[in-house]
Predict the structure.
Amino acid sequence: MEGSGFGGLFGDPDEIQRRLGEFAEQMQGAQRIAWADNAIKLAVDLTVAAINRMNIQGTTEQQAEQLRATMAVVFPEAVTLVREAREGLA
């Protein structure tokens, strides 16, 4: 029974350790992808919510300016979220 707990029931301990390490790496990769997906979804939701809350009025030019002003505030935040999500995948 030397080096094989439970009478060798679970196989080579080094092989088990290697497989557990691979499994942990896969889980970390899946967590990074899930985080990135959530960050990108948050960026989209943030942008959509900001646009939906707007009360656009006036001429076409005034409406366009209102949209641009809102996007000037929201877009940099959304870009930051997406950039951080992409960096998390690298």
